[in-house]
Amino acid sequence: MEDATYNRLAHPEDLSDDLPFTANQDEQQVSLSMGRFESLVNHQKMLTVILSILAVILLSIDIGLGIYYRNLTDGERIVKDINSEVAKLQQAYKIAINSEIELKKELAREASIQQMTIWMLEHQKSRNEDYQKESDKILSLITGLKSHIPLLKEGCRHCLPGWNLINSICYYIPFSDDISRRTWEQSRDYCKNFGADLIQINSREKQLAIHALITTYHNPSLQYSASGFWIGARDVEEEGTWKWLDGTQLTEGFWNFGEPNNQGNEDCAAVYPSLRKNPFKSWNDAPCTHVLKWICEKVQNFSD
């Protein structure tokens, strides 16, 4: 131990030689320390910058999240408001639909009532028209009867009971439905029993008078084919050549349109009533076996 101490003391050069080294070492250590400090400072600055950047990023994220949350909250509120409005609209639509259904029902009821009223009016109008027709018929009948009163009075003096006097000639026209219809031959036989014969219509004046008479007393419910009256004309000798019972040829006939047409061996002539039609178009040819009413005529002796 003493040697060691001695050695350190005995060699001062060694001590002197070690001093510069030690100082240099300290400087190096100081330099290293300064470098480390600066490095630490730089690292600290960098860390501070990084932390600042991270703080900014986190702040941005937080702000973004806040804005997003606020937008999300606003969106939820908007969605709730929209749902509330939709619910209100649905309720209003439901009310409107129910109102429309009720209105349609009410309209259908009103339309049904109106249709019933229209039908009733049409029915009443039809009845009024029927009444008017019956009234016109009755008035026409009354007028016809009044016009024939003088003829009946005069006929009672010169004609058989039930016969009418027209232009100095007595006529028998069976208007009553209680009288049975007859064939052409049977009708002529009836007339002959009273010294008469089937009527010969050989003038327009006579045609107008007879047509007006049978039209006045015509029964509208009767079928047209059964409403005719036999007259004294036929073409049994030669088809298409019509003659009166006295053998004279028929020169002026008052045939209906398309008549005579000889459908089914129609050889006898009849006159028909024609309401609101041409009185000069009222003759038809018919089978002589067909049953109709008839018109007899008889010239009376007025010398009395």
UniProtKB/TrEMBL annotation:
Q: Which CDD domains has this protein been placed in?
A: CLECT_DC-SIGN_like (cd03590)
Matching entries from InterPro entries are given as: C-type_lectin-like (IPR001304), C-type_lectin-like/link_sf (IPR016186), C-type_lectin/snaclec_domain (IPR050111), CD209-like_CTLD (IPR033989), CTDL_fold (IPR016187)
Q: Which PROSITE patterns does the record cross-reference, listed alphabetically?
A: C_TYPE_LECTIN_2
Domain of life of the organism in this record? Eukaryota
GO molecular function annotations of the record: carbohydrate binding
The alphabetical list of record keywords is: Lectin, Membrane, Transmembrane, Transmembrane helix
- Protein name stated in the entry: C-type lectin domain-containing protein
Which source organism?
Answer: Periophthalmus magnuspinnatus
